Queue: 3 jobs
Job 1
Amino acid sequence: MIQFIAKRQNGATLIEVLIAVVVLSIGLLGLAGLQVTSVQSNHSAYQRSQATLLANDLADRMRANRTEALTNAYLTDYPTSSSSNAVTGTQAAKDKAEWLNSLARALPNGTGKVEKSGTLVIIHIRWNDNRGRIATSTAAADADTIFTYRTEI
């Protein structure tokens, strides 16, 4: 009879180590991609939070100066984004200029629009959110983000 003597394997072969390294690296690349998406989403959420705070700021200014707010002194229609608006004139003009300056400083290409119907005020804030945008289509990348805030004064 022929006897086979089985050799005992000691350790892993080079191919097994290479396969383990490839699987691990693919997993780490997936985590890196997830981290990039997370940072983009967080930046976009930060900008939406800034828009919310700035819209609320103007609404509070309008409530504090209700007489002028009811006479349409705060109405504006998306001026060019600029942080050098002159803060002069009536209180409403000062409030509007300070608000537009804050929009331009806090948001990329940030500008705003104010509409009023009776005591209902609609505040629109528009900015470029390309840095935080996850969508890859060209049409979505070129579109500005618009935040709308409705309140009574």
Job 2
Amino acid sequence: MTDSRTILIRYDEIGLKGKNRKFFENRLLGNVRKSLGGIGGIRVDKIHGRLLVRVAGLQAEECVRRLSCVPGIASLSVGVLVEPDFDEMAALGIEWILPRLQSNGSLKFCVRTKRSDKRFPSTSTEIDFEVGSRIMKSLAPKGLSVDIAHAEFVLEIEIGPQETMVFDNRTPGLGGLPVGSSGEVLSLLSGGIDSPVSSFMLICRGCRVHSIFFDNRTFLGRGGYDKVTRLARVLNRFQGGGRLYVVPFQDIQVAIRDCCSAPNRVVLYRRMMYRIAGVLAERNRYQGLVTGESLGQVASQTLENLAAVSCVVPMSVFRPLIGIPKQEIIARAKKIETYDISVEPHPDCCSVFMPDHPATRSKIEDLEADEALFPWEKLVEQALTSVEVIDLDRSG
């Protein structure tokens, strides 16, 4: 068998984009090429509604690992180019199936063909039968059986206008839309479980997501800063090009503690965070804010409190987790490998000066009255002049 491999990249949602489809395909093509940067001898082509990556066999596993982190890809398959000959296709299938059969003692399999070249004389069903019967003739005595509905091994065949490809089982991708197709947004990233998941969900909707972290090293130490920096780098693996803005927040929190009603503190913190994030977003032409808020999960996330913080910014606020149960959020965090970092015991700044009984239904007029008691505009400006900007593509 040849040492070269062909990785077939499938997409689903992009295929529904009508007249804009080419834009999304080209964006995905660029992202795929970028993700495979540094791997030599690779060629990426766009062919009849698919992307094909030509690569040396030893590099295929690394390519699949990287491509599994690229939004917009529905699934991947690794295979080889063959002649459109039933005997050659079957021989390749036998070569792949036999080691698994010997290891397991038995195996259920099927053949599935996609025939995009309608000039090929046999239909997809006929190809399935011709190739499958040849494989069964050779391997049925060793324990191979056909099971179309519950196959443990699927031999896939693609009959294209220029070439025929044979693949083994599919690797699922992230799906969604390619990063860069929907604009840029700014995510309020804490060290908790929720905000990294919400950022990831916007990444998979085609956004490039930058992050902002409100740091109170004076009272909490450096642990939260280091934790969020690691979370931001994990998220950036799915997109590239992200930035993390670190905003000193201790002076604002002290002023709220000293001047304002204790029950309102957390909502006042959030209003100040939104204002600062909104200014940074406008300066950088980001098109909205992203938060990890989920309705009713904590005291600050009631309908009244969410309205009280949203009203201070003149831009869209995206809350992709708003109706998702906590256990499902946790499952998603584990899948994207942020959960173990998020549960490390480093509190975020909203836990500083936490009141015994935080307000659950804040009134905007009461919050504005509290804000009139301290120079919040000046403090916001001071915080904005001290922002640290971290380029997440750089090592460190």
Job 3
Amino acid sequence: MTLRVLLSLLPAVALAADVPGGAERAAPPEPVHVQNYGDHDAACLRWTDDCRMCSRDADGKPACSNIGISCQPAAVKCLSRKEDEKK
């Protein structure tokens, strides 16, 4: 390429750098897993990934068991929910 061609491409490169959505993109959402499931579903009292069991203590803080040595975690599911306040 000649110098003239390279210099003619510079404005296009500068404009491409100013396109919205580049480096200013929002961070992807945090994936839900057994350790943070209680933060995403505040009404759930007990949940599992079929390897670990988690539940809330008296203060509402989550506590989880350890994973088994050969267990393959599945999708997290809620086992027990808070009762409705209206009931």
